[in-house]
Design goal:
With 319 residues, this protein is mostly helical. The chain has one domain (23-315). The chain is built from 15 helices and two strands. Helix 1 (23-41) packs antiparallel against helix 3 and helix 3 crosses helix 11 (204-222). The model is unreliable at 1-17 (pLDDT under 50).
């Protein structure tokens, strides 16, 4: 029988009591990997346009990894990890994604450039130290078109730089966990490389392009997910309806996910519709009708300043 959420809205992020397995999520995991194989084999038929088709299952796989982080489709973290372990998106080790994402779920720290690993803000001091060209790049990255075009490259550089720093600064069990996450990731890349090269017959640069396009699609979702506000509840968006909802596994209803992180992807729409007015009030109207509305408003215009309005190095002296 499919999982039924038993946890309250105040559950610790990612922890939820549920029945043995969610059949819908399990079927989607299987379907995603089958779609990835089919899209890859399409390369032999249509050539380089398969790059665009491959981006879709790669992006969906990232959404499924997000589900696994939050306890789906089973009560076993080891099983959930095994189901989505294959790193077809290439960049982020699953265990590093899990650890960093759960840090992001502390709503009191949302958007903080020091404490929220998914923040796109800079502190005033760090921004002032940047060169003029880099400031322009980050400004462009704060438009939706820029986020989708150059955002993936910025994300990759920032992530690898932060991982290098974490490896240098950590010690003991923390460092061992980081090395193990990357070791498992490297082991997973071997079968992915074999499938891409021998199974798909696809050049590595073309597959890298698919992975980049997948990050661009995910950037569409994450672009407006959070904004700075004094009240934590006002920081998280709701994108009311979206044809991209299935690709994002309804994470466009992002506020609902943050308040009730144990809900499965297919439970989010009903949870939102049943209390729509309350959700819209909770985030103070930070709601869009769809991604088209976000594109019209922020396609070529900065959503907000790159500099965080309240966080400085003085508020984080240890950093």
């Amino acid at each position: 029988m499919e999982g039924r959420v038993l946890a309250s809205e105040n559950s610790e992020p990612g922890l939820v009591l549920r029945r043995p397995v969610e059949l819908r999520t399990l079927a989607l995991v299987i379907g995603c990997h089958a779609a990835w194989i089919a899209a890859g084999l399409l390369y032999a038929v249509i050539g380089w346009p398969a790059v665009f088709v491959l981006a879709l299952p790669i992006a969906l796989h990232s959404s499924l990894q997000h589900e696994a982080i939050h306890g789906h489709p089973s009560a076993s973290p080891a099983l959930n990890e095994a189901l989505v372990f294959l790193p077809i998106g290439l960049l982020v080790p699953f265990r590093r994604y899990r650890d960093l994402h759960l840090q992001h779920h502390v709503d009191e720290r949302l958007t903080d450039p020091y404490d929220d690993p998914e923040s796109f803000y800079e502190s005033r001091e760090s921004y002032d130290r940047l060169s003029w060209p880099m400031r322009r790049v980050l400004g462009w990255n704060n438009t939706l078109v820029g986020r989708m075009l150059i955002g993936p490259a910025i994300t990759v550089v920032r992530f690898l730089r932060s991982e290098w720093r974490a490896a240098r600064r950590s010690s003991g069990q923390e460092r061992r966990a980081l090395y193990k996450a990357w070791g498992l990731h490297a082991a997973g890349l071997l079968p992915v490389a074999g499938i891409v090269h021998y199974g798909f017959g696809m050049p590595v640069p073309l597959y890298l392009a698919s992975a980049y396009l997948a990050l661009s699609l995910l950037a569409l979702r994450s672009f407006a997910e959070h904004q700075w506000a004094e009240e934590p509840g006002h920081r998280t968006v709701i994108v009311d309806s979206s044809v991209m909802g299935m690709l994002f596994l309804n994470n466009n209803l992002h506020l609902v996910h943050h308040v009730r992180p144990g809900l499965a992807w297919y439970e989010l729409p009903a949870a939102y519709r049943n209390r729509k007015d309350e959700w819209d009030a909770l985030n103070n109207g930070y709601t869009f009708g769809g991604y088209r509305a976000i594109t019209r408003k922020f396609g070529f215009r900065q959503k907000e300043s790159v500099v965080h309005p309240s966080v400085t190095e003085a508020t984080h002296p240890a950093r």
